[in-house]
Structure formats: C-alpha cells, structure tokens
C-alpha cells in the first residue's frame, strides 16, 4: 500500500511538472531590465522551445520592481515574439498585458498567446524588455480551457477595474474597419450592489478616445451584451481609425475579460443581446467626462472628454 501511494504521488508530481514547462530559470542570478534594451541573450525562450505552443497557452514570468532603478517612473516589462530573432517585432501586445503592477516581491505575471504571438514565437522565440524590472523565471503552461481562441487579438483572465485593466495596443487592430464588430468575451461576475449588467466603458483610441458605455445615455455610443458571454458593438469609421492609432482601453467592474476580437459580422449568442443605450441619440450628447471615464460637471476644468474628443479647459 505504501509503495502504491508513493507511486501515485510520483505520478501526480510528474503530471504537475509536465503541465508547466520551465523555459528560463535565473533564480539567484536574476536579470535586471534597464532602458528597454533587448534581453534575447539573457532572458529568452528559443524558437525550439516554442515549437509546440498554441493559441491560448500561457507564458508566466516571475518578476519584481528594481528598487535600485531611479530613472523609470513606471517600472514595467513587455513580451516580444520575434520573427527571426531580436528585434524583428516589438509590441506591448504580442503576448498580452505588460507587467505594470510590479511590487518589491517576486510575483508571477501571465501572458496569453494569440495566433500572432504563437506564429512569431515559433520563428524566433520569446524575449522580454523593459525598465525598472527584475526577471527571475519564465514558464509555459498549455491551455486546457477547451475554448477556441482562434483569431483573438488579446487573450487574458483580467478582472475589470476603473483604472483600465483590459487594454490592447494599436498593433492588434490593423484589420479594424467601418462596419466590422468589436467583441470582448467576458465572464460576468456576481458582485453585491453592482448593476445587473457589465458595468463600464470601452475607449476606442485609449484615454481621450471615443467612449462606448453600457449604462450612460450621455456616452458617445452604447454596447450590447449577453450575460456571461460578451460585450460587442459595431465600428464607425472614426472608431476604426482611433483603434489603429492608439488601441483600446476597457474599464469597469462586475466582469472579467477573456478575449478580444474584430468580427466581420455581428456576434451571435443565441439572441440579439440587450442594447443598453440608444446609440443614435447618444451621439448627440454634450456630456463631459474626465480621463477615467467618469462624468463630470459641464463647467469642470482640466483635460476632459466631450463627444469623443479631448478638450482642455
């Protein structure tokens, strides 16, 4: 019996190890990133290590803030998937969200692989750069969710906040065009006291761009939603241009982002969804918002958003 139990423990340990493959381990000889220089020689996975990766897989990097670096106001690091080695492609979005919440203790950060990231990682591997960050370890975990993430521009498991927890850079939106549909796949959460719908704003073009809101009739445009499924809306020509220029920021609460897409046709979730806002009428609004997407008084001062445009008073 004892031998059987030991065998079971050994088998479980083997399965656990196989589920998470160590790509880089610099424990005791950590790599400090200073000045956004490439780390392909010091903290990178090779193309050979990436050959079996697939869309939806997770790259986890263990990192912390570099307290000795006083030149960087916002310590962070970014994932890079290379076509033929450093630095063929540099983008904050090839591997998902950057590590913008670094603390003084080593903390794991997850980067979810899109089609684009997988394709290029297989050609030239994965590297990281940044400033004010210290990297210790990189692992790869195969996706076992059963979700088909094909075509996703961004993949994550990111809880929405009013600080803008879900974002994707302009590189993700090269195919954005008038008439296409923006879709954000979500998990809707049960939050006491929250609105019974996903609560938040989507900023086409980042802060100061065109705001799409679910609950405020004074927003520039409204989105549709299907409970526990997705948020979506159709792109105008200006929205598409803004996405190409500066990407998107999504904020709010009561939901977690799973994936982001640009669709040729309206998403179908077994119904038309619920239109939270009369988009045609809301385009005529004169409401004023701050850069956090919160409505403010019409006579407020500072850098503000009105009719989707940034104004300064």
TrEMBL record:
<protein>
    <submittedName>
        <fullName>Uncharacterized protein</fullName>
    </submittedName>
</protein>
């Amino acid at each position: 019996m004892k031998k059987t139990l030991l065998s079971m423990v050994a088998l479980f340990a083997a399965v656990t190890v196989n589920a998470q493959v160590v790509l880089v381990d610099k424990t005791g000889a950590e790599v400090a990133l200073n000045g956004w220089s490439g780390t392909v020689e010091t903290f990178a996975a090779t193309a050979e290590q990436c050959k079996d990766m697939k869309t939806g897989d997770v790259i986890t990097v263990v990192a912390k803030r570099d307290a000795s670096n006083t030149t960087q106001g916002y310590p962070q690091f970014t994932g890079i998937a290379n076509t033929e080695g450093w630095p063929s492609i540099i983008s904050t979005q090839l591997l998902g969200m950057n590590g913008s919440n670094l603390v003084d203790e080593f903390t794991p950060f997850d980067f979810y692989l899109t089609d684009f990231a997988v394709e290029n990682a297989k050609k030239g591997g994965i590297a990281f750069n940044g400033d004010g960050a210290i990297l210790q370890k990189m692992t790869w975990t195969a996706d076992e969710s059963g979700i088909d993430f094909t075509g996703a521009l961004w993949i994550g498991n990111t809880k929405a906040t009013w600080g803008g927890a879900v974002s994707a850079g302009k590189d993700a939106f090269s195919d954005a065009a008038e008439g296409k549909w923006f879709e954000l796949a979500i998990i809707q959460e049960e939050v006491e006291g929250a609105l019974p719908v996903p609560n938040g704003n989507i900023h086409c073009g980042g802060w100061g761009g065109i705001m799409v809101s679910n609950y405020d009739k004074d927003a520039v445009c409204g989105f549709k939603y299907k409970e526990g499924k997705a948020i979506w809306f159709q792109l105008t020509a200006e929205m598409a241009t803004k996405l190409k220029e500066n990407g998107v920021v999504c904020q709010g609460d009561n939901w977690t982002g799973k994936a982001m897409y640009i669709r040729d046709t309206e998403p179908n979730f077994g119904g038309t969804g619920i239109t939270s806002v009369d988009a045609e009428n809301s385009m005529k609004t004169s409401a004023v918002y701050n850069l956090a997407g919160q409505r403010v008084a019409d006579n407020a001062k500072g850098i503000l958003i009105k009719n989707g445009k940034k104004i300064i008073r």
